[in-house]
Design brief:
The chain is α/β, with parallel strands linked by helices and about 280 residues long. The chain folds into 2 domains: about 210 residues, P-loop containing nucleotide triphosphate hydrolases (Rossmann fold, 3-Layer(aba) Sandwich); about 45 residues, no CATH class. It has a 6-stranded mixed sheet, sandwiched between helices. The protein has a 4-stranded antiparallel sheet with strand order 2-1-4-5, with helices on one face. β1 and β2 form a beta hairpin. It is globular. The structure holds adenosine-5'-diphosphate (ADP) and magnesium ion (MG). Adenosine-5'-diphosphate binds next to β2 and α1.
Length: about 280
């Protein structure tokens, strides 16, 4: 885990957020507090509302109720200010596959009116370990390289708060490790990062704070030990997650409070094998 460089102020502050799509209530009173300079992992199953949360915090969607402040600005009443302070990389990589890696970066630097765009592009290519592929069309890159380029592009213009929505979903283990390295590097620089993930190991490795999103609210929040304790003393984060989300072996219940009292089974441990832990 990276050092905690937060100075006490909150980069993201969410209070009582509600969001429905038709009859589907996705967020039902979501609260979050992300200290500036820290890495925060929003952990949730498919469909839990992670992207919905990121979309509201990045001013793409409007909440039905509740408040959210990002970099000190209200997302509903000061969206332009919020947008100037943030960057977001979505679940799908947004790079131009015909342009080279270097050209992609230089283009974004130009669009964001950064001085010396080519120099900035060259620096980022180096920093993200893409120098050897700098002159190749980005469409020829591996999944991990595309994702690294996508994240590098999103950092142009020095955003205060970085949103990464499932940055490693769909990557093979090598690509996942590459992206973890990149995120770890950003964290060491003291950036505020909110990442969403379905992978416990990713959350445990990268984040100072983990929040489990389930049933439209945060079922547990804190470091790994706090999450395990909240799940009734689960042996590991995966077991805790399965308990909190009602997916443990004997589960199927949506009742988080009831499920939290149970001792979870170990659950599938494929992520451990994959990461060599
Ligand atoms: N624009 C939309 N219209 C209708 N339903 C949506 C829309 N966006 C998301 N949903 C629904 O909201 C729920 C949460 O979605 P999402 O935030 O994408 O979850 P996650 O990112 O955690 O997988 C899902 O049931 C999804 O089908
Ligand atoms: Mg999503």
């Amino acid at each position: 885990m990276p050092p905690d460089t937060s100075g006490g102020s909150l980069a993201i502050e969410v209070n009582g957020l509600y969001k429905s799509f038709g009859d589907t209530a996705v967020l039902r009173g979501l609260d979050l507090a992300v200290p500036a300079g820290s890495v925060f992992a929003l952990l949730g199953m498919n469909g839990a509302g992670k992207t919905t949360t990121v979309s509201i915090l990045t001013t793409v969607l409007k909440a039905d109720a509740g408040t959210a402040r990002v970099a000190g600005c209200d997302v509903a009443t000061q969206p332009a200010k919020v947008r100037r302070a943030i960057t977001v990389t979505g679940q799908n990589v947004a790079i131009d596959t015909v342009l080279t890696g270097l050209e992609n970066l230089a283009l974004i630097a130009k669009l964001r009116r950064v001085p010396r765009p080519k120099v900035v592009a060259g620096e980022l290519i180096e920093r993200f370990g893409l120098a050897q592929a700098a002159g190749k069309p980005a469409g020829t890159y591996s999944g991990g390289m595309k994702r690294r380029l996508d994240i590098a592009m999103s950092l142009i213009g020095q955003p205060q708060v970085v949103f990464l929505d499932e940055p490693t979903t769909g990557l093979d283990p090598a690509g996942r490790h590459e992206v973890w390295g990149v995120i770890g590097g950003l964290a060491e620089q003291g950036r505020t990062i909110l990442l969403t993930t379905q992978y416990m190991e990713e959350a445990a490795r990268l984040a100072h704070t983990i929040a489990v999103l389930h049933g439209g609210v945060i079922a547990a929040q804190g470091d790994e030990a706090t999450i395990r304790a909240a799940a009734g003393g689960a042996p590991d984060l995966e077991a805790a997650f399965l308990t909190l989300t009602g997916n443990d072996a004997g589960g199927g219940t949506e009742d988080v409070a009831g499920a939290a009292g149970k001792t979870a089974g170990a659950g599938p441990a494929s992520w451990r094998k994959e990461s060599g832990l």
